[in-house]
């Protein structure tokens, strides 16, 4: 994964733009439901890492699931785009 995607995930986790917070949280919750059911979720493995992470790709899920341009390497979920104002009003 590129540094740009890593920084996007952490930025969206720690300091999301006000007008994107709700969408980022929606995507995060949707992705986390998928990750929690996955065999590679850290809860299903012995690991010394204290964070919730994917044992397949190694990413911290609190940040990766908030990176809108990221996708799961197993294709369990794909990248998302912010809805336009028109899409929000429909």
Note the main attributes of this structure.
4 helices, mainly alpha, 90 residues, globular
Question: Can you walk through the features of this model?
Answer:
By secondary structure, this protein is mostly helical. It has one domain (3-88). The protein has four helices and no strands. It has helices spanning 3-14, 21-36, 61-64, 85-88. The longest helix has 16 residues, at 21-36. It is globular and about 45 Å long. The termini are far apart. The model has no long low-confidence stretch (mean pLDDT 93).
What is the residue-mean pLDDT, rounded to a whole number? 93
Percent helix among the residues?
40-55%
What is the C-alpha radius of gyration, as a whole number of Å?
A: 14 Å
How can the largest sheet be summarized?
Answer: none
From the spread of the alpha carbons, the general shape counts as globular
Low-confidence residue ranges: none
Number of E-state strands: 0
- The helix/strand class is mainly alpha
- Determine the strand fraction and express it as a percent band: under 5%
Number of helices: 4
User: How many angstroms does the end-to-end distance come to?
Assistant: 34 Å
Number of domains: 1
Order of helices and strands: HHHH
Itemize the secondary structure elements and their pairings.
Layout: H1 3-14, H2 21-36, H3 61-64, H4 85-88
Précis, in short:
The chain has 90 residues and is mainly α.
């Amino acid at each position: 994964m590129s540094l740009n995607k890593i920084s996007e995930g952490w930025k969206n986790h720690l300091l999301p733009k006000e007008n994107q917070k709700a969408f980022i949280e929606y995507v995060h919750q949707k992705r986390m439901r998928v990750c929690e059911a996955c065999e590679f979720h850290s809860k299903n493995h012995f690991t010394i890492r204290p964070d919730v992470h994917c044992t397949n790709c190694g990413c911290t899920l609190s940040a990766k699931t908030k990176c809108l341009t990221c996708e799961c390497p197993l294709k369990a979920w794909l990248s998302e785009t912010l809805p336009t104002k028109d899409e929000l009003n429909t």
